[in-house]
Structures are given as C-alpha cells and as structure tokens.
Amino acid sequence: MRTPEPAPRSGDFRLLPAVLAGGLFSVLGMGLFSFAIPLISLDAGIDGARLGGAFAACYLAKLAVSPLADRAVDRHGPRPVLLAA
User: Fold this and answer.
1) What is the pLDDT of residues 43-85, one digit of tens each?
2) Which phi-psi region, left, alpha or beta, contains residue 77 (left: φ > 0; alpha: ψ -120 to 50)?
3) Which residues have C-beta within 8 Å of that of residue 69, sequence separation ≥ 6?
4) 3-state DSSP call for residue 85?
5) Could you tell me if 39 and 46 are in contact, meaning their C-beta atoms sit under 8 angstroms apart?
6) Which residues, at least 6 apart from 50, have a Cβ–Cβ distance to it below 8 Å?
7) What Cα–Cα distance (Å) separates residue 4 from each residue in 1, 7, 8, 10, 12?
8) Where are the alpha helices (DSSP H) in 1-85?
9) Which label site among 9, 48, 57, 58 has the fewest CB atoms less than 10 Å from its CB?
C-alpha cells in the first residue's frame, strides 16, 4: 500500500515573493501614472479640468471593475481571470 502524500503546510510561503512583487508593480504603475501624466499634460497644453476628468475616469473605472473581477475570481479562479485580463 502506498503512503499518502503529506498535506501542504500552512506556513508555505513559496509564492509570497511573487505576490509581493505583483503588488509592488501595481502600486508603482499607478504612482508613475499619477506622476508622469500631469508633466506630459503641461507640455501638451492640456488644462487641469481635462486632466482631472481623465484621472476621475481612470479611478472610477477601477472602482466599477473591482467587484466584477472579484466575483469572477471567486467563480472561475485567479488564473483564468488574469489570463483574460
């Protein structure tokens, strides 16, 4: 008779660096976006109201999509949702 394989330990942190790197890159991306776009808009002569509207649209879209993405991850798992994104 074969012996069953041991269950994974609850303290297994092999994926922790990948998760932390993903969070870091996400925050860096939005930070760079928030820093670079106003500088680029100054060169292009875009007024503040349009720039504010663009930022509002970006964050409102993020706000609207987050619950849908969360539901999709719960239903289908994280891998298919990330591949679809």
Assistant:
1) 888 888 998 898 899 889 989 999 999 999 999 988 888 888 7
2) left
3) 81, 85
4) coil
5) no
6) 41
7) 9, 9, 12, 18, 19
8) 16-44, 48-76, 78-84
9) 9
